[in-house]
Structures are given as structure tokens and as C-alpha cells.
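Readers of this paper often ask what the protein records in our data store actually look like. Below, we set out a record of this kind in full and without editing:
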Amino acid sequence: MDEKNAWENFCKTGKAEDYIKYSQMKNHQMRSGIIQEDQHANPNAGLDYQGADGGRERPFGNGVDG
């Protein structure tokens, strides 16, 4: 049974146990997706990330300066 079928089954029955089955399948698929994304993440990304603007200073009045 896949997530869609589990949802349809819950809609038909309205039983809490069927919703729990659906929820567990959905959570498992989300965790699997996150794991796959992590495998493709940049292994060199670290604490020295310079940001979208290449690490340049922000103009005065742009948040931290007051």
C-alpha cells in the first residue's frame, strides 16, 4: 500500500488506525527524501559560507547597524 491508497482507505473508513498508517507512510517517505537530499549535499559546505553577495558588507541601515 502506498501513501495515496492509505489516504483513500482512511477517507473511506474514518478510523484513527487507518490515519496512523497513512501518517507513518507519509513520515517514512519524507525521511527517505531527506536522506536522499543529504547524500547529494555539498560536502564542502561549511562555516565559511559567504552568502549570496560573496561576503561583502551590508550597506548602513540594513539590519545590524541600527
User: Anything to note?
Assistant: The two ends are 56 Å apart (CA to CA). The longest helix spans residues 16-39. The mean pLDDT is 75. The chain has two helices and no strands.
